[in-house]
Amino acid sequence: MKIEQQRRVLTAIPGPKSVALQERRLASVAAGVSSALPVFVERAHGAIVVDVDGNQFIDLGSGIGVMTIGHTDEAVVAAASGQLEELTHAMFTITPYESYVRVAELLAEHTPGDWAKKTVLLNSGAEAVENAVKIARHYTGRAGVAVLDHAYHGRTNLTMAMTFKAMPYKTGFGPLAPSVFHAPGSYPFRDGLSGPDAAARTITYLEKSIGASDLACVVAEPIQGEGGFVVPAEGYLAALQAWCTANGVVFVADEIQSGMARTGRYYASEHFGVEPDLVLSAKGIAGGLPIAAVTGRAEIMDAPHAGGLGGTFAGNPVAAAAAIAVFGEIERRNLLAEAGRIEGILKPALLELQEKYPVIGDVRGIGAMLAIELVHPGTLDPNPVAVGSITAFAAQHGVLLLSAGTFGNVIRFLPSLAISDELLREAIGVLGEGFAAL
Ligand SMILES: *Cc1c(COP(=O)(O)O)cnc(C)c1O
User: Fold this and answer.
1) Other C-beta atoms within 10 Å of 26: how many?
2) pLDDT tens across 265-303, in order?
3) How many domains does the chain have?
4) Is the CB of 259 under 6 A from ligand 1?
5) 355 is in which domain, residue-wise?
6) Pocket test for ligand 1, best of 256, 260, 262, 281 (most atoms within 8 A of CB)
7) Is residue 321 located within the same domain as residue 356?
């Protein structure tokens, strides 16, 4: 189903049908499940999302970086619907099938590192994080897990302990899993530290507070997602990885948000000269179908015994077929280059807005993973109120914008790589009007 790639606001936002659905939702869906915008969507294609009232939004969030190659991509739809009629479920741990193996081969080919790799497929990002920890613990015989401040790794019992923010992710949900340690990371805009200095601070913490001999793994997002698209200072990640390698600690890159072509490379680690022992994929890997992966050094991945890894739906054939189609489209349409095209338009526009509006404290990111951090002008004081005003203004004018950040003061841009220059420029125009109206 094709949808005209055009912004169109026909009703108040939310429109009457959305308002009616919201009432039903409030009566039937648990309050703990919230939505950033009470607009009910009906269809989507490319970079446009259509709501139940017929409004068309330019989507700069892609369902948090999931629809990287575009909504209802034709190749993904064809692969998934074809697979649905062939084989919907078999459970790989009972009787295997080829598509699971093919996804593992593609991940081995496209993740960083030129060594023998193996993969386990799962259903969600959090499950990939959990499995990486299981594998690292089994391999090292150690229990400790270190994560970085401002990280987001999920909402399950183990991963909420690994996630930085208490509210809304941890508050009231304890006791939290033990042996998880939060170390300071690198946040150049706020800490002003060089990569080597920030790495020295992290390493001192790891050595003094945990001790390398008790540490199974360090889990880090090469570019933090939920934390506000924080790009570490130059040299930080490489120094951290070198310390892990020297101390027998498994270095895990959580690339669930930053991976799968979002930054113009298959994995953001490549921008930092880092080749992680284990790499995690999820969000963008299958054009919206639920599948996730842990991929890494064969000797680490093979540490757990047979039966130790898996899950009923994990590596589902329909999701696996979609993932194969996504890899195919990234190659066929040279989508890695599209991330650079988007950066080339969006980043200068954001820098121009920063010159005009000192409420924009920082512009950062790589490829189609860009962000602005809003502050009270001339300070580092977070300005989440301005973020709320801008995202609300954008929604009223047919642009979906996502916020992020520990302080809720970041606007993140993760458009589909299929977005046209025209749509992107139009969305930037709305953003500019939003700042003018602040
Ligand atoms: C979204 C995300 C997760 C969790 O993935 P789910 O599929 O929501 O469980 C983990 N890590 C990062 C970096 C993420 O962006």
Assistant:
1) 10
2) 999 999 999 999 999 999 999 999 999 999 999 999 999
3) 2
4) no
5) 16-59+337-436
6) 256
7) no
